[in-house]
Amino acid sequence: MLYNKLKPFPDDFLWGASTSAYQVEGAWNTDGKGLSVIDMMNHSTESADFTVASDHYHQFKDDIRLFHELGLKTYRFSIAWTRIIPNGTGEINEQGLQYYEELIDELHRYGIEPIVTLYHFDLPYTLQENGGWENRDTIAAFVNYSRVLFSRLGKKVTYWLTINEQNTLILHPGAVGMPKNGELPSKKSLYQQNHHMLVAQGEVMALCHSMCPQAKIGPALNMTSMYQATSKPEDAIAAHNWETLRGWSFLDLATRGEYNYLLWRYLEERGWQPKIEQGDLKIIKEGNPDFIAINYYSTATISESTGEKSDVMPRAGDQQIMLGEPGVYRPEENPFLDKTKYGWIIDPVGLRLTLRKVYERYSLPILISENGIGAPDQLNDDLTVHDTYRINFIKAHIEQIQQALTDGVEVFGYCPWAAIDVVSTHQGYNKRYGFIYVNRGEFDLMDLKRVKKDSFFWYQKVIESNGAIG
Ligand code: BGP
């Protein structure tokens, strides 16, 4: 739809930026922190590990001062479960609680609204050793951990996110590292894990509402739209298959508390249905989110798969590169769209489409909790970083958010990935996303100095003008 005049961004629009604990903090074994699955995974020897990351744990005050200079209205970060309860259950680590309390206080001192993710990929390793999310006991562990946070930080935090990208954890578990034994869990196990996460999430959302009545809580999923490759009806079915299995089925459960019929048939057909205990569905249904957070990076183009093995692409997949599944969907190239250096399709209009679809289906306000472009930025001798590609990427996406707002979609915040350079989930340090450059290499930690990129100064103006970037 074309409009003569676009709606302005609302005055209280939350312009922000994101990070996650294990990708930014470092200090992997400091001040009583326990080991997480991330600390114990096999990571590629060609890229940085997460032990020091961006050293935000030690430098958070200086970093927040920079976030303030950038003009952020909000900062989305995650809490490392292993700093709070080092073994997942049992003893609480006061130093961990103090750290996040100070961080939140520091944000408030600058008038920056904290958006807190409870769990962003870094499950305590002790829980993993006992079966991780496949073990039902992890539900109680997550609820207890969340209770500790709500009770200590509840008065200081208005926005909570439950689980970051549950669909990535279930559909692309390898994207967050390989277990030491080199084996990813079976699909049957993954869908059981999925079910337990949903029960845990349902309980935590209800708990948040009862303990912190002023707070709002919602899930954060990796959402995208699927285009059918041609007007062939079978391609439309395949695109619908994958859009449902990758996106809708997760959101249907998180928001409506219902197993999507198509997901259920897909699971039944393969013998992958989870064991559902009495009362589980009630708990899932009673956990009502106040909003939906979406991480949006790209779209995919899909054609029919007739069941041939070759419908799976012979290339590495990750959370954004679709691989194909015989009899379900086959990924195709999209001749209209470019890709990043890492093969992720760049599709700003797809963001407008995804926002519309999510809003139409669930009628809940939407926070864009991630969106961004990974690139091997270069630091120049005069301490500049000319990341024009990032400015172009984010500008194009902000324009589409404004289109979606004009369409009538309720979007209340935008938190690009990332506030500052962080370690990528599986592609090292030099795949950078931040508005702030961190002077370190893949292995050489150098001086970890912070340098404002061109995109920093540009985003600063965007925020100052409340999105009047045209
Ligand atoms: C999302 C994750 C983030 C982040 C981002 C960029 O899926 O929620 O943690 O890392 O993707 O991905 P990557 O680091 O793989 O480039």
Automatic annotation (TrEMBL):
It comes from the Bacteria. One of its GO terms (biological process) is carbohydrate catabolic process. The keyword RNA-binding does not apply. InterPro entries: GH, GH_1_N_CS, Glyco_hydro_1, Glyco_hydro_1_AS. Keywords: Glycosidase, Hydrolase. Gene3D superfamilies: Glycosidases. This is 6-phospho-beta-glucosidase. It comes from Halolactibacillus alkaliphilus. The gene is bgla.
